[in-house]
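Design a sequence for this backbone.
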């Protein structure tokens, strides 16, 4: 599902529900769960996530030109001017990266709330099993853990290995910024994957009993 596609609406309030029978309610529930699951863990959401990380790193790299120049032993006016222009452009590049990251977090929160509402509406073994989405969940978990690990390593390695020839304190500031961007986005991905996994696990025990529930007489829509 494309990020531009509207999210499936939450289930209607109890007093407004008008499904003719339980099968119709379960069909709508399954469609909503699939759509919301793709919005949380699918390719469109991953593209948004990767795009925000790349824009932030690109913009910060341009800002880093000025930071490294300022940390050097000698700084002529031409070099300073070039670094200043790069830093201004880099700050402009970072703005859409921050916007994409914030937009993604807000959309995830809304999607999780609607997913929880549809999950609580009923139980269906087949739809609830698909909710696990094990492959996307594992991919998100591994990628996010990699970002966190790389950010943590850079946070220690850059200060320990910086020399005046590399740019001194300016290089350290740039490296710590790179590490922070990786660390924060890795945490966002980890919280997303872990939250989805916890929800799927909570649904799983009830999903095992859904076969017997499906044999009961249909409840009023």
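Sequence:
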């Amino acid at each position: 599902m494309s990020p531009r596609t509207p999210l499936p609406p939450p289930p209607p309030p109890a007093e407004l529900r008008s499904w003719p029978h339980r099968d119709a309610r379960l069909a709508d529930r399954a469609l909503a769960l699939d759509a919301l699951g793709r919005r949380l863990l699918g390719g469109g959401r991953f593209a948004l996530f990767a795009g925000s990380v790349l824009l932030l790193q690109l913009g910060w790299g341009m800002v880093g030109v000025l930071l490294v120049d300022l940390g050097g032993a000698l700084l002529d006016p031409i070099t300073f001017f070039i670094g200043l222009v790069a830093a201004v452009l880099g700050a402009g590049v970072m703005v859409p990266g921050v916007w994409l990251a914030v937009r993604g977090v807000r959309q995830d929160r809304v999607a999780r709330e609607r997913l929880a509402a549809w999950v609580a509406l009923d139980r269906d073994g087949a739809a609830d099993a698909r909710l696990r989405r094990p492959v996307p969940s594992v991919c998100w978990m591994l990628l996010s853990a990699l970002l966190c690990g790389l950010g943590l390593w850079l946070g220690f390695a850059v200060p320990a290995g910086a020399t005046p020839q590399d740019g001194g304190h300016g290089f350290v500031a740039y490296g710590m910024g790179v590490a922070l961007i990786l660390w924060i986005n890795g945490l966002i991905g980890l919280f997303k994957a872990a939250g989805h996994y916890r929800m799927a696990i909570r649904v799983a025990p009830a999903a095992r009993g859904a076969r017997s529930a499906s044999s009961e007489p249909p409840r009023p829509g």
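The mean pLDDT is 84.
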